[in-house]
Design brief:
This protein is of the alpha/beta class. It has 15 helices and 16 strands.
Length: 459
């Protein structure tokens, strides 16, 4: 056999398809590149499909314990949900120092970016609102809003002496400056907000480095925030909020109820209703409903008072007035106790929320009509009492003979007694014949504490 016939199949394959090897290598490279691009495309599509989320906490009103509970819980819930940021949309005239500090602590300790947005137009961040706004990672305001007037005041009414004024002012200044320093805001203006009650519109607040942005809407704010780098608990975080899904977390039903309850006007009306209820219950023992409703109303009013800045002299006068009015039921004073009670109630009402802050006072549009109705009701009661005392007095039991009355508990007849009422008094009564309830009777005799009656003839 020839030498050519002894070639191995392997050597043939290696030499024969040389053109195929030249084509396969580029094809493999192109396939690898295509697969890599496909993987990167899938990764990008997946990343794009994860839409950033922002939790929105709208709050309008005074900073009270209810506001503190709502906002602090809202920040914690946003953290647990893994939201990219939480936005507090704020409009407040101010509020209580303790509640404000709880909110500020939650902002400074938050593990996600906290944004305070003073909006919509016409809103304000006054007094406690200044601290809350400046403590945010990002502070923003809508056009037509303002911020400032953070000077501490005595919410309980009356002035503070010079020493106490200095103490609370220096404390507030130091607190706000420390917040401004931590957030990189204007410390000099923070000091003026407290010491001289400076107040700035949104445009000037932006120029003075009090806030970070002005935005006409929430969408505009989210677009301006996008890409901003923040330091959260020592770690750099880049915000991705453009086109974010906004999830509003409103107050719960319980929180809305408590917020309405701690309104000074609502608390005042509840207090008056409580006094009405107790008065009716003591005037007519056993009626139950007025006493139950009055007791509940009074307890709700007392709960509201402990969450409001009240004047204790006003509370004392209101309690005195209530005691005097209740004593009128038990003691015959011919109206003197009622007049004294009404005077005490009026003075206590005027002093109850004697505060420099508008949110902590009862509106005169509520107070005046309520006091007029209250006074009118009790004066009517006094008039009826006086009128009853002017009626001719019953000289003896024998003089009741011939009087007519009404059966309130059926008289079975014979020696078994029933009950009749005449001249406003309830008597045990017996009759020779049965007389049904609501029947009219005539007294024919008095035997000890029992009246002997007979059916009355129609006139």
């Amino acid at each position: 056999m020839s030498h050519r016939s002894r070639r191995s199949p392997l050597s043939f394959r290696m030499r024969g398809p040389r053109g195929l090897g030249l084509v396969a290598v580029p094809c493999l490279c192109l396939g690898f590149v295509a697969a890599l691009c496909l993987c990167l495309g899938f990764a990008k599509a997946r990343a794009d499909s994860v839409t950033p989320t922002v939790d929105l906490l709208p709050y309008d009103g005074a900073i009270t314990p209810v506001a503190s509970e709502y906002l602090v819980e809202g920040i914690h819930r946003a953290e647990l949900r893994g939201a990219d940021a939480v936005v507090i949309q704020l409009d407040t005239p101010g509020g209580l120092d303790t509640s404000m500090r709880q909110i500020v602590k939650a902002e400074l300790a938050a593990k996600i970016p906290v944004v305070v947005y003073v909006a919509p137009s016409g809103s304000r961040a006054a007094s406690a609102g200044v601290f809350i706004t400046m403590a945010a990672n990002i502070a923003a305001m809508a056009p037509g809003t303002n911020i400032g007037s953070a000077s501490p005041v005595n919410l309980g009414g009356g002035g503070m002496d010079s020493t106490m004024t200095k103490k609370v002012t220096h404390d507030a200044v130091a607190y706000l400056i420390s917040i401004a320093a931590q957030r990189g805001r204007n410390q000099d203006l923070a000091k003026r907000f407290v010491e001289t009650a400076d107040n700035l519109p949104a445009k000037e607040a932006l120029q003075e480095n009090v806030i970070d942005f002005m935005a006409s809407s929430l969408d505009e704010l989210l677009d301006k925030m996008d890409g901003r780098v923040l330091t959260i608990q020592g770690l750099k975080t880049t915000l991705h909020t453009a086109g974010a899904e906004v999830k509003e977390l409103p107050m719960s039903g319980r929180q809305r109820f408590l917020k309405a309850l701690v309104d000074p006007s609502v608390a005042y009306i509840l207090m008056l209703l409580g006094i009405y209820g107790l008065f009716f219950e003591l005037s007519n023992p056993g009626s139950l409903a007025p006493g139950i409703l009055g007791g509940i109303s009074l307890l709700l009013a007392l709960f509201a008072f402990q969450n409001l800045p009240i004047n204790y002299a006003g509370i004392a006068l209101l309690l005195l007035g209530m005691v005097l009015l209740i004593l009128e039921v038990k003691v015959t004073s011919f109206g003197a106790l009622t007049i004294g009670g009404l005077a005490s109630m009026v003075l206590g009402s005027l002093m109850l929320f004697d505060s420099q802050q508008s949110w902590a006072r009862v509106s005169l549009k509520v107070m005046i009509p309520a006091l007029v109705v209250f006074a009118g009701f009790f004066m009517l009661c006094v008039a009826l009492v006086v009128r009853s005392h002017r009626r001719p007095a019953v000289q003896s039991r024998e003089s009741l003979i011939g009087e007519r009355g009404r059966v309130v508990d059926a008289i079975p007849g014979g020696s078994a007694p029933g009950k009749v009422v005449f001249h406003g008094e309830i008597w045990d009564a017996i009759s020779e014949v049965a007389i049904p309830e609501q029947g009219q009777v005539e007294v024919v005799g008095i035997e000890g504490r029992v009246a002997r009656v007979k059916p009355a003839l129609r006139a």
